[in-house]
Design brief:
alpha/beta; 3 strands; 3-stranded parallel β-sheet
Length: 81
């Protein structure tokens, strides 16, 4: 719970949202929500276009740094950020 920085590589690649990928995103979101001290998050590659709200929604505090490699953001992602 005291983890401040996390780098995830090749952890989740969502090309088309399916039941399985939706479940995976929710699982990752819950796990991230269990890290109240998290301030820096790096996800490489992170093809999560259109799903940022879903994966970051359980964070307990704002991030100071977010790195999304190879991620095309859509307007809904930018609105969330």
């Amino acid at each position: 719970p005291k983890l401040r920085s996390l780098k995830l590589q090749h952890f989740l690649y969502v090309q088309h949202l399916t039941r399985e990928s939706d479940s995976s995103i929710r699982c990752v979101a819950r796990q991230l929500g269990m890290l109240p001290s998290l301030r820096e998050l790096s996800m490489l590659p992170a093809n999560l276009s259109g799903n940022l709200r879903q994966i970051l929604c359980d964070l307990q505090a704002p991030l100071e740094s977010l790195e999304l490699g190879y991620c095309s953001l859509v307007p809904a992602d930018l609105d969330f950020l």
